[in-house]
Each structure stands twice: as structure tokens, then as C-alpha cells.
TrEMBL record:
Keywords: Cell membrane, Membrane, Transmembrane, Transmembrane helix
Cell membrane found in the keyword field: yes
Compartments in which it is found: Cell membrane
Membrane-spanning segments: 7-25, 55-74, 142-168, 174-195
Major localisation: membrane
Organism annotation: Rhizobium mesosinicum
Protein name: VTT domain-containing protein
Keyword Heme: no
Ranges of residues in domain VTT: 32-162
Topology of this chain in the membrane: Multi-pass membrane protein
């Protein structure tokens, strides 16, 4: 069984529009594993269903437009309503209120860099357009940052699928996606642990200064 492989077969029917549509859909369907779909798209690129650069461009444009739509909806809806909705959606994708508050705080402090980096963190990347809208990030800064982040995210997994099938012909897309999920979860847990330790250390008084 290879459900992701079947999904890519459907995308292939519509060519570049299918790539655009799946990029757009992953912004509004949290249950859709974007990394898995991207890996499967990369695997299909080796079968000449589409070129590698077309796969990156098509999915990036779709995902970027989806992120922009979310950002503009937040700006139009207002802070109070959007914050309540953000907490609700966060619960659906496994994000606690404290994690959401941390994301908002981090984006507020370093908006340009973290708009890019937020697109490289699973689950956080889904709420970052909403967070940017809440914080009043300028449209130009948001579009630039999120587009760069999406190119990196999409390019990484599409290239990963492409290179994997070159090394292991006939690789099952869904099996590879599952292995990547384990790696992503482990990486995210490691990053969260490092961040908490760093934050705890930064909150401690300067022992050296106190001795003086």
C-alpha cells in the first residue's frame, strides 16, 4: 500500500496545476502531511512526471498564496477573534497555548528571520501566517520571509525524495514519509529541549556578576 503514491498519481493528471493545488491545500488541511506529499512528488520527478524545478515552483507558489490568504484573513478579522481561533486550531494540530504564545513572542522579537525559520518547523509553520497577521507584520516582509522559508522546506523534501529514489529505485513513498516523520519529531523535540535549556539558563542571575 502506498497512499501517497496514489495521491501523486492524481496530482500528475493535472500537471503544474495539480502541484499548485496541493501546495495550496496543505495550508488549509492540517491533516495533510506536507513533507510526505513533497517527498512523493520528488520521487515522481525521477519518473519524469514533472521536472524537479517545476515541482518546487508549483508547490511553493500554491503554499505561498495559501499563507498570504490566511495572513490577510487575520488582518481583516481582527486580533480578538483570530486569537481565539488560533488557540482552537492549535489544539487540533497538537500545539498547546504555551507553544502558540512562544511562537507569537519569538516572531514579535525577530520578525524577519523567524518568518523564514518558522516555515521549517512542523506544525509551527501552519500557524505562522496567522501569527504574523496578529503581530501586524508588514505584507512585504511577510511575503518575502514566508516565500523563502517555503522554498527551503519544499525544496528540501522534494530533493530528498528525488535523491532517495535514485539511490533506492522503487522506494515506497509512504514508507519513506513515515521514516522522515520520525526524524522530524525527534529533531523538533531536540530543538524544543535546547530552547528550554537556553531560556532557563538566560533567566538565571549572572553568578559571575553577583560574586563581584
Amino acid at each position: 500500500m502506498d497512499p501517497l503514491g496514489y495521491l501523486v498519481e492524481w496530482i500528475a493528471i493535472y500537471g503544474i496545476f495539480g502541484l499548485f493545488a496541493i501546495g495550496l491545500a496543505e495550508r488549509f488541511l492540517p491533516a495533510l502531511p506536507s513533507y510526505g506529499v513533497l517527498v512523493a512528488i520528488g520521487i515522481a520527478a525521477d519518473d519524469e512526471v514533472w521536472s524537479l524545478h517545476n515541482a518546487v515552483i508549483g508547490t511553493t507558489v500554491g503554499s505561498s498564496i495559501g499563507a498570504l490568504v490566511l495572513y490577510l484573513l487575520v488582518r481583516a478579522a481582527g486580533k480578538k477573534r483570530t486569537t481565539a481561533l488560533l488557540y482552537s486550531v492549535g489544539g487540533w494540530v497538537g500545539l498547546s497555548r504555551s507553544r502558540i504564545d512562544w511562537t507569537l513572542s519569538s516572531l514579535r522579537e525577530r520578525q524577519s528571520a523567524l518568518t523564514i525559520l518558522s516555515q521549517l518547523i512542523p506544525t509551527v509553520r501552519l500557524i505562522s501566517p496567522v501569527a504574523a497577521g496578529l503581530l501586524g507584520t508588514s505584507t512585504l516582509r511577510f511575503v518575502t520571509g514566508v516565500s523563502v522559508g517555503i522554498v527551503l522546506w519544499n525544496g528540501l523534501f522534494i530533493a530528498g525524495g528525488y535523491l532517495t529514489v535514485l539511490a533506492i529505485p522503487g522506494m515506497n513513498s509512504s514508507a519513506l514519509a513515515l521514516k522522515i516523520l520520525v526524524l522530524l519529531v525527534a529533531t523538533e523535540l531536540f530543538i524544543a529541549l535546547v530552547w528550554r535549556l537556553q531560556r532557563r539558563y538566560s533567566m538565571r542571575p549572572d553568578l559571575g556578576a553577583s560574586k563581584r
